[in-house]
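lol so apparently i was supposed to do this last week
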Amino acid sequence: MSENKPKEGINRFGQKTITMIPVEAPLNPNPGHKLRTSNVIVNRQALSSGETLIDSSRLDKVAGQKIEFYSEGNQVGVIRVADQEEGGPVPNQFTGPSYRNPRQRFRFDGHKMMHHLDRLLAWERGERFAPVHIDMGLTKFCNTACLYCYAVVQNMTRGTLIEREALLSYIEDCGRLGVRSIGFIGDGEPTLNPALYDATVRAGELGVDTSMATNGLLLDMDRAHDLLKNMSWIRFNLSAGTREGFRRVHQSKEENFDLLIEKIRALVQIKKQYGYKCTLGLQMVLIPECFDEVLPEARLGAELGVDYFVIKHCSDSEYKEIGINYEDYLTIGDVLKEAESYSTADYVVQAKWNKINAASESALYKNGIRKYDVCHGTPFLLQISGNGKVYPCGPFFNKERFYIGDLHEQSFFDMVMGDRYWAVHRDVTESVDVHKDCAIGCRQDYVNKFLWDLKNPPEHVNFI
Ligand code: SF4
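anyway here it is w/ iron/sulfur cluster bound
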């Protein structure tokens, strides 16, 4: 195999350069002008004369070329070996090791808007359209008291939940409207609403994808099959890998940690036994109080056999009521990387680096200034409170100016097709200053960045 080590130098401007030209590569005799390095250029014609280009998707099957697979951490790459037994030279054989990016199984750290171009076109045409996704609470209360709970700033109210009939007719309307997915996420604990299970089954019948984020403690195991059969994913909010950490971060009894682990283990077993597709995962909300729990939980996830363990930043409110100092995240990068190294083919460990690394942004951006000025995302990704009240987004729950309606009083179909719904979304785009009125890193953030770029194209867009 050709030697292809980085070669460092100082260029004629006194700047550091790094090149990777293999010593045995054929060089171009008439290389043209000097680059910032030199005018030593590989002769690509000599490498590829008379050859058709390699279909890179078939790199591991190219005739006459030897390859070796190698792995580093959880990633598998391909090394093309220069020595050939048959066939002629292949292009770029001196560029050294090639690589295959591992498939991204989940996209925790981004958005999937490009898969919903029909809604984008409707938006661009100024039409009324159904949200692609809705995050919704099913209750306004909880049975644990996590240190980082955002719902606390959204006014929790013991005993308040969406009534069964209202919930089920809302699900029917989502099917009618073409809502693509609903996450029972946010506000209170969803398993405290007994209608959760029937709502999930009905959504499945209507072709609306569902998911849930839960602390898992009260999950009704008698309905486990209904959930695993119909939900796309279930995520356990767990920010500790030990009993002691669980008590500290979730402010709950250590025995509850045992109970939760037992339930997750049973769900994994049922899922495997019956071949259900539902993804089971753990999510840690990263705060300094659980920094020491990252690795134990990464190991716990592997041992339980869940599909993933994701570590996310803690979203603080516009008033920073959770008191997060985002610079604290700069101290834990190595631990997060070690946790990610526990990933296997069946188990993904991933930190949401985009948000976790926000503290290393420039002084302007690290304290919450966004890379866009207008929020366009709420009609695509709506949020509903656990009391049935519809708002454009979670951070605006209880802000009556942005109140759209109540699922107990009006059909969701009429709401989405009505004037009030669109007047509120318009008010958000026209009057909200995302840099000061909004929670840090809200749910619509990735979508907003994408829509902002779409709305504000640079010059020369045809030069893609
Ligand atoms: S940017 Fe502001 S208005 Fe828009 S969803 Fe986020 S918090 Fe709500």
